[in-house]
Amino acid sequence: MEPYQQPLPEGTTLSIYNHDQLIFSDSGRWLSPLFAFERFLATYTGERDCLSAHDTAAGKAAAVLMSRMGIARAHINLVSDLAVAFYEEHGIRITWEKRIERLACKTEDLLFDLTSEEEMYRLLRRRAKLVRGVGIAVQQVSYAYPDLPPILEDLSFTVEQGGRLIIQGDNGMGKTTLLNLLLGKLTPAKGSILIDDQEITSLPKRTIGYIKQQQTQEHYPVSVREVVSMAVDPSLDIKQQKWEIDTALRRTGVYELADRNFFTLSGGERQKVSLSRTLCQKARLLLLDEPTSFLDAKSRKTLIEVLHSLSMDEMPTIIIVTHDKELETDLRWPVLRLEGKHA
């Protein structure tokens, strides 16, 4: 019997070994030990070439998380048929003490018909309340500029916490107006907008991060690092602030531009710097206005990778307003098309 197959110590619900060496254990319930192990892996620098897990119980949810974390072997005290099928499909060696058809939990039911591992992982993070994002509820909103017909009329949609939405539409269909309504710069003529179940004016500072189109022609001496630093939490110590800034710049691929004047950069470079600033802000809602407008192919790829990473890890709520119909294919997010009447 391998070390990871030995009985768990009293009170322990999850043990992880690399080969024969115990590297992690936890006494939590449900999926919390596996999410704790995920956080452990983020800073773990030891060997992980043969990760083996012993868990008290595993349904499909645990199998999804273990596969994502690189578990190669698993021994489960109580395992479901759904979990065994997933383990075997993903090449994970699985042994157990008792096997049943299905665990009696809602999560097992929710995952039953899902096949996208990304969507399953996002669902599990939402159920574990590991989501930064806020819910949005737009209900029968109308807006008209003075002496003009309504540009938005009876528009309703919702976005769940950590949800993603692409808003598409031709010029004049109200995309920018909708962004300004979500930012609180405009007030609906009719209807309501709630963010995190609150009026926009009641939201805490730093809740919303806005990345606008990079069209400004201003010129004054401010470095890329200074632009990004404006969004860092000032309560952090200097060392932590620097780490946050450097991490954000590296994540968007503009670290080498840190000392350049922001206003001498190309539109695409400014866009990536603005995204870095928003990463430092740790906004719970990201609003992006035509984020691919000035990007070359390489910068566009970086942007999509960062958005994908955000939507899988931190999971803020993200809304993109764009003409770029290829984004729908690139991101595969839900799409709202503004086409005039919205009732």
TrEMBL record:
Start and end residues of each ABC transporter domain: 136-339
PROSITE patterns found in the cross-reference section: ABC_TRANSPORTER_1, ABC_TRANSPORTER_2
Keywords (A to Z) from UniProt: ATP-binding, Nucleotide-binding, Transport
Pfam families: ABC_tran, TM1506
Keyword Transcription (UniProt): no
Record bears the keyword Cytoplasm: no
GO function terms (MF aspect): ATP binding; ATP hydrolysis activity
Name of the protein in question: ABC transporter related protein
Organism the protein comes from: Sphaerochaeta globosa (strain ATCC BAA-1886 / DSM 22777 / Buddy) (Spirochaeta sp. (strain Buddy))
